[in-house]
Design goal:
- The protein is of the alpha/beta class and 249 residues long.
- It is 43% helix and 15% strand.
- The protein has a seven-stranded parallel sheet, with helices on both faces.
- The longest helix is centred in the middle third of the chain and has 29 residues.
- The structure holds nicotinamide-adenine-dinucleotide (NAD).
Length: 249
């Protein structure tokens, strides 16, 4: 039920953090991986190959929609088809809301939301062409539910990721395409480095997590495999929080 043997999965932001961990988890379940990032992904490639599946790197800057067509085309040329898309690449820029710049707003929203949407659309078109159905998994956030502090563009984009996930799911379910999302809690990656370096904020957050620890990238591996597998065929438009209980407090 959870096997991904013979499937092809595209994962954006595959070089580090959650993206790398999801590449490893999906390959462990049997999927071949198309990793997308701005720079080489040698570490991820090594980890995937240790699991006995293939890794194909596509270098692309997702700050614009320009590389989208090439990403799908390269993936199909390499593996003959695609089955899974994980929209993981994302950025955060911190500044007081009163001073937040238009440039930071555009950069954050373009990658976190606009590229996520149009890459999903391109994958969906390929799934329809293949008549295969497919799985799209978007990476949301605790700030898909809460407002946050000094991250207005990030919060707006991650709220929108949840909304777009539902909108896409509604229209594409009829093609056997499942669009869902994962909302990670506070995980130890580059994305949270500034927060973790602020001892006061780090401990405030830690105290509020029922699980009693920050998350590790590997903590979302099981959920991405589940949503990418046939076990999730009847799940549409839902966001699963993997947050150590943060939202339940
Ligand atoms: P990260 O900074 O290590 O990863 C971000 C990834 O996005 C990197 O692989 C980076 O190369 C890629 N990326 C950024 N800009 C890009 C661009 N222009 N083109 C191509 N790739 C680009 O941090 P992470 O925590 O692994 O973040 C992954 C996702 O998880 C993001 O969407 C983030 O918002 C989300 N998230 C993280 C946390 C957390 O606590 N770490 C919590 C909730 C959500």
């Amino acid at each position: 039920m959870f096997s991904l043997k013979g499937k092809t999965a595209i994962i954006t932001g595959a070089n580090t953090g959650l993206g790398q961990a999801m590449c490893v988890a999906l390959s462990k379940a049997g999927a071949n991986i198309v990793g997308v990032a701005r720079r080489e992904m040698d570490d991820t490639e090594k980890l995937v190959k240790q699991n006995g599946t293939e890794f194909y790197p596509v270098i692309a800057d997702l700050g614009t929609t320009e590389p989208i067509e090439r990403i799908i085309k390269d993936a199909v040329n390499r593996f003959g088809r695609i089955d899974i898309l994980v929209n993981n690449a994302g950025i955060i820029r911190r500044e007081d809301a009163i001073d937040y710049s238009e440039n930071d707003w555009d950069d954050v929203v373009n990658i976190n939301l606009k590229t996520l949407y149009f890459l999903s659309q391109a994958a969906a078109k390929q799934f329809v062409k293949q008549k295969s159905g497919g799985k799209i998994i978007n990476i949301a956030s605790m700030l898909s539910y809460q407002g946050g502090i000094r991250v207005p563009a990030y919060t707006a984009s991650k709220h929108a990721v949840m909304g777009a996930t539902k909108a896409m799911a509604n229209e594409w379910a009829k093609y056997n395409i499942n669009v869902n999302a994962i909302a990670p809690g506070y995980m130890a990656t580059n994305n949270t480095e500034q927060l973790r370096n602020d001892t006061k904020r780090y401990n405030e957050i830690l105290e509020r997590i029922p699980a009693g620890r920050w998350g590790e990238p590997s903590d979302i591996g099981g959920t991405v495999v589940f949503l990418a597998s046939s076990a999730a065929d009847y799940i549409h438009g839902f966001t699963i929080a993997v947050d150590g209980g943060w939202l339940s407090r």
